[in-house]
Automatic annotation (TrEMBL):
Entries under Pfam families matching the protein: MerR_1
Database matches in SUPFAM superfamilies: Putative DNA-binding domain
One GO BP annotation of this record: regulation of DNA-templated transcription
Source organism of this protein record: Streptomyces tirandamycinicus
An annotated Gene Ontology molecular function: DNA binding
Residue intervals of the HTH merR-type domain: 19-87
Descriptive protein name: MerR family transcriptional regulator
Gene3D superfamilies (UniProt xref): 1.10.1660.10
Amino acid sequence: MPPGSPRPADNLDDDDYPAYTMGRAAEMLGATPAFLRALGEHRLITPLRSEGGHRRYSRYQLRIAARARELVDQGTPIEAACRIVILEDQLEEAQRLNEQLRGRGHESRSGGAA
């Protein structure tokens, strides 16, 4: 194993590790490979490529794809579903950062000498 590369066990906990082939990812989602390709075309998820050029998906990407699948199954056009999921993901990230900043601000106000 090259120095600095992650140990195989580390990949088990890594939500961003591209562990799933397109076929396996589609099977897990109950979708078709064409659905996954469409999500890529609409820039919702961008799979990594194996050395052989095959698409590989992470658990994080599969969660995003599953949410898009829910919306599409409810009748939302795929383009709109992708946009909704992107906005939901951005909102979640902004809320997480806001909580972190609030926590830091509270620590600095309460951490001073009396």
